[in-house]
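User: Structure please.
Assistant: Input sequence and predicted structure:
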Amino acid sequence: MTTIIIGAGASGLACAIRLKQNMPSQKVVILERLSQAGKKILATGNGRCNLTNEKADNCKEVISFFNDLGLITRTDDEGRVYPYSNTAVTVLETLLDGCDKSGVEIVTDCAVKAVTPQLEVKTSKGSYKADSVVIAAGGKAQSSLGSDGSGLEILKSLGHTITPLSPSLVQLTSPSKYPRKLKGHRAKCKMALLLNDEIVSEEYGEVLFTDYGLSGIVTMNLSRLAGINFAKKEPEKCHAVLDLVPEISENDLLNHIEKHGSLKGILGSRLNDIIEAQAKSDKEKTAHYAKNWKLIINGTKGFDFAQITCGGADTNEFDGYRSKIVPNLYACGEVLDRQFDCGGFNLDFAWHSGIAVADQISDNI
């Protein structure tokens, strides 16, 4: 029995290892279009690989999976789980060692051209015949790290529906001069995303000002709806509204200005000077802008900078992770239309879905 896994990323590697754990005699081959397996894993968590999160649905399963492979983890104050070494290289080495020890074959520089309904996999290095095929090729985010949308095209060619795609967990761009003036400055604040002046989502946390607009965890988490909006033929008007001091009322801010002359003691000089200049030194406007600083958003940084893809293969067409359309075809990870917030939740799903696919394949043999 042979299983072909397309994509040597997080879900694909986890799937291969679990398959060999379940069925040591099963032949498992991973086809990777890049010259290196797991390249995107090395970029996760700013090079530290945020494996999962204490609040994630599959946290215990994921930690147990890696513990069994010899990887020990540590958890930070916000529940994010990292390898004890604090480096993504350790995670990838652990996975590749697991593949090597269990006999998983990884074929790199192998671009998959097509998969037939009879599960013949046609590649740049010839054809493979499989008893089961797993599409684990990711979405369209960061194509240089492996996800170029080819897995989505394969599923579409086999009759699966692909929901509309847009970049997610991505930076937002603004034509405003103010973020550029604040480049590198971080603010702990509340941010709301407005479409046609209606709040569609809001969140509290860190915002990073950049020369192109806004970044930071809050921005990334709110970017999904912005990405969906800008993928439309006629996007709605989009704004970000920042409450720079959510713990203090507008009236109290005004009183602070009356007493101390400015908000420098609250906002710091850089941010205060910009808010004050925009308000033309009007005290009431300064207090109001500090609570309601509105910035035009005119786009996202796109798929090349996005951590994940919003949209993907319609999960209604799968029984668990097994295709309802093509027998013995499976999909896992980012190629599916499942998205989560920053903080290890998307990697948690990638590991879990790969493991779950392996268990489904084992149960169906």
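The two ends are 9 Å apart (CA to CA).
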